[in-house]
Amino acid sequence: MDVIAVLVKASLNPDVIRVEPDGSIDVKSIPLKISDIDRNAVEEAVRLKQKLGWKLIAVSVATWGPISARMKDLKLAVQEALAKGVDEAIVVADDSITPGDQLTTAHAIKTALEREGVRPKLILAGEATIDEVSSQVPGRLAALLGYNYISFARRLEVEGGKVIAERDLEDYVEVVEAPLPAVVSVTQEINDPRPPTLLQIRRAARKPVKTVTSSELGGLEKPRRRILEVRGIQVKRKQVILEGDSLEEIAEKLIEALVKEGVLRL
Amino acid sequence: MKVLGVAYEPRDAGELLRAASSLNAEFHILAAGRAAENAEEVSKYASKAYILKTKSPYSIFKAVESLVKQEGYKLVIGEGYRNLRDALSRVAGSLNMPMATDAYSLEVSGESVVVVRGFLSERARMKVEVPLPAIVLFTQRFTEPAEPLGHGSIVELKPEEGPERVVEVKPKAVGEVNLEEAEIIVGVGRGFRSKEDLKLAFELAELLGGQVGCTRPIAADLKWLSEDRWIGISGKRVSPKLYIAVGISGSPQHMSGVQNARIIVAVNKDKSAPIFKQADYGVVADLYQFLPVLIRKLREKLGR
Ligand SMILES: Cc1cc2nc3c(=O)[nH]c(=O)nc-3n(C[C@H](O)[C@H](O)[C@H](O)COP(=O)(O)OP(=O)(O)OC[C@H]3O[C@@H](n4cnc5c(N)ncnc54)[C@H](O)[C@@H]3O)c2cc1C
Ligand SMILES: Nc1ncnc2c1ncn2[C@@H]1O[C@H](COP(=O)(O)O)[C@@H](O)[C@H]1O
């Protein structure tokens, strides 16, 4: 049976970071969540799976360790994909490749697919993750597998052994066609992903999730990137909530404050 | 050491030269995209300029891949345009090179490169070290262009055709506003219920002598405004004196674009919206009730 793979990352959640008094950030203190645009990729993959009648698998590589502390968040990200209609999932989790880099991640995805004997016709990914925002993993993977690559797709169709996509660039949009097999990265605008229903979530608990380590995969490329330092960008804002008995009063106070700040001249 | 800069817009050439000039390296440029349309200009910024007349990420990928293999470039630098992220991520995959994106600065130390880059949707900076050969993509307009060097040699390359076929190209509307120059910006978000309703924000902006900017969904998804008004990590980074965010929740991806605003005002009906923690002055109110009052008060005071 033909297979679609969708790449799902449990990313550091930038909404809940804690900056230490010295300005540093300990990434171990940041919880993980499914990267926003991977939700769009999953939604699109499920739509195509239903249309084409192919099998849909998710692949996720643990980037942030330690694995023992991260397993719950990793599972949750994958569970969401399964609940949305993914049939099964492969999770690569090994402390020897955390904290991972994009080189490691792309290699691990390729190796996991090969070890499982899966050669997807189509691989969907997000345009960028919420922690790294690098837009790197899908292109690397396409090059490693020798697949065609279509990036930043805001519309996608699969027809007659081809992908037809609308690529969204800075100053123009282009419609491109490329033969399968292909890797496609999708933008946030491609669809409007809905959260899974409770019933979907319950059913997903029975779907197969295979967690594999580096040695089970016959060894993986080690990360080459060394993180020397992570520092938070301090937002020092006044955070004054203007209150009053009426909107008129609040508007007066706002105008007064802006004049005093020297950003409004009357 | 040999460094290859990949220019996509003409002004990239000078910026990439500045980044390379502190490295004591031999610097060459590959000009693609719009940068390839002006070979003479680009060639002023390197001892050698390869001209590749294409925007195709496949063709750029193949050209850079073979230059790195044949000429032994240790470092490839560029700026983070979508087509370059595409092309160079494929080079990185094919040649097994580390790659850092969203870089603000770069230093070479021995056989490795140290990069400071955006991280956590621009809420943080990450300092990383990767071994050479490597690829580094800077954030757009990360520095001022260097002075031209004189004239380098020009070598025209023939783009290698890829397996994909471009069926149609649709240009986007450009040049409507210049948010980077604006002193006051009224930002609109999904709190607005229709395109029609944005006139409230335009009225306020006009009264203040400012411009209207927006969040990504307003431009990219709903298409109520052109994309040159889109502020944030994947849009414009602006630095007005005053930013008034109306009906905007305050996602890190949006707020990173207004980090340099001097004063931020937030109008949101949800008192627990994250934007209030990132604003100087907050008004918890329905924008449909508050904006008309604010506009009326300003009109009274301004006598307009
Ligand atoms: C990789 C990546 C890159 C991204 N890049 C960008 C980017 O460059 N720029 C960007 O903006 N976003 C970007 N996003 C999207 C971002 O995550 C948010 O989804 C987006 O910024 C939300 O836009 P919003 O605030 O308009 O909408 P929402 O988050 O839906 O917020 C709407 C707000 O309006 C308020 N509201 C509703 N009705 C009213 C009313 N009547 N009166 C007052 N308030 C009201 C609500 O309380 C809510 O807080 C990116 C996302 C990712 C993952
Ligand atoms: N660790 C990972 N596991 C699975 N997929 C990933 C991983 N990292 C990145 N991806 C995929 O690649 C896309 C782009 O990621 P990035 O290159 O980090 O911006 C993401 O949206 C995912 O679809």
Describe the structure.
The complex is a heterodimer of chains A (266) and B (304). Chain A is of the alpha/beta class and 266 residues long. Chain A folds into 2 domains: 3-217, 3-Layer(aba) Sandwich (Rossmann fold), CATH 3.40.50.620; 236-266. Chain A has helices spanning 36-52, 67-84, 102-115, 137-145, 198-204, 247-261; strands at 3-7, 10-12, 32-34, 55-61, 88-92, 122-126, 148-159, 162-168, 172-179, 182-186, 209-212, 226-232, 240-241. A 9-stranded mixed β-sheet of chain A has the order 9-8-7-10-6-1-4-5-11, sandwiched between helices. The N and C termini of chain A lie far apart (70 Å). Chain B has 2 domains: 2-157, Rossmann fold; 179-302, Rossmann fold. In chain B, the strands form 2 sheets. Chain B has a 9-stranded mixed β-sheet, with helices on both faces. In chain B, strands 12-11-13-14-15 form a 5-stranded parallel β-sheet. Chains A and B meet through helix 3, helix 4, strand 7, strand 9 and strand 12 of A and helix 3, helix 4, strand 5, strand 6 and strand 7 of B. Bound molecules: flavin-adenine dinucleotide and adenosine monophosphate. The site of adenosine monophosphate has 24 residues of chain A, from helix 1, strand 4, helix 3, strand 6 and helix 4.
